[in-house]
Specification:
By secondary structure, the protein is mostly helical. Among the domains are: 42 residues; 52 residues, no CATH class. The protein is 59% helix and 0% strand. The longest helix has 14 residues.
């Protein structure tokens, strides 16, 4: 996500529009910004009196808290060659935590642990030999 425009640019855009000589699209073209930016800036100034950007919203909370990260580290210690899907399944089974493989990968990154994306060729061959044949 791009950074917010600087307060200096916001003030210059506002002053150009506030003079009354130019429309919002003309101001946008003059400063190389979108017309929606000028429209939103004018609305923000009218409603709040401020030109400052809104604070960052934060984002999605992590899937695992400190306790969950500890459980994940223990799961990796128990079976260091487990795949991401296997670790997610182990967390679901042992701790009733529903995690995606992506969430496990991010959590392992926070723990500074490496992850295995797929099973070894030997395990894949074994899994294929157990799979029922389609008829």
């Amino acid at each position: 996500m791009p950074n917010a425009f600087s307060l200096d640019l916001r003030e210059r855009v506002w002053r150009a529009y506030d003079r009354g000589n130019l429309s919002q699209p003309q101001v946008a073209e003059q400063f190389g910004v979108s017309a929606s930016f000028v429209r939103d800036l004018v609305r923000r100034r009218r409603e709040s009196g401020s030109l400052a950007p809104k604070p960052h919203g934060g984002g999605h909370p992590p899937a695992l808290d400190e306790k969950g990260l500890k459980h994940l580290a223990q799961a990796v210690a128990r079976k260091s060659d487990a795949t991401l899907k296997e670790l997610a399944a182990a967390m679901r089974h042992r701790h009733k935590l529903r995690l995606s493989a992506s969430a496990v990968r991010r959590a392992l990154g926070w723990l500074k642990l490496t992850q295995k994306k797929e099973s070894s060729p030997r395990q894949r061959k074994r899994q294929l030999s157990r799979a029922p044949l389609a008829t």
